Amino acid sequence: MNLTTDYSYMTGWLTKFKKRHGIRQLKICGDKASADAETAEDFVNEFVRLVETEKLSPEQIYNADETGLFWRYVPRLTLATADEKDATGVKDSKERIAILGCGNAAGSHKTKLFVIGKSAKPRAFKNVSVSGHIPVK
Q1: How confident is the model over 109-128, as pLDDT tens digits?
Q2: For residues 78 and 26, is the Cβ–Cβ distance under 8 A?
Q3: What one-character DSSP code corresponds to residue 95?
Q4: Which pairing describes strands 114-116 and 77-81: parallel, antiparallel, or unpaired?
Q5: In this predicted model, what pLDDT tens digit does every residue of 41-51 receive, in sequence order?
Q6: Containing H/E element for 18?
Q7: pTM value?
Q8: Which of 5, 90, 111, 126 has the highest Cβ tally under 10 A?
Q9: Is 43 helix (H, G, I), strand (E, B) or coil?
Q10: Has keyword Cell inner membrane (predicted)?
Q11: Starting from the edge strand earliest in sequence, which strands make up the sheet with 114-116, in order?
């Protein structure tokens, strides 16, 4: 192909191309899980009842949540034709750690972050010197 002129794509070119050829974007998922909205609503109602019954203040109500910190993470989106219903996933990279944060509803007490791993020296820290603890601020 002897192209002598530069071609610049116009805004929306990819969107129009995908529409014309029946290509759409799918979220890659390894396992499908269904959310149970009714159970979630029941839990919220029970929690509100418990807070009122026990006369709990925001200082007494805590929430903890964890998140993964990944290296070499695989993208979660892909392009697929219109007849493809699902995009099969791949296993997550083992090069990860989990971080847990916790605090009360008033925001007056927040614990230090907890770093959670399955091994004494996670692969994610192979080039990091950690003498018994990981400095987290």
Answers
A1: 999 988 877 666 666 667 76
A2: yes
A3: -
A4: unpaired
A5: 999 999 999 99
A6: helix 13-20
A7: 0.49
A8: 111
A9: helix
A10: no
A11: 62-70, 96-104, 114-116
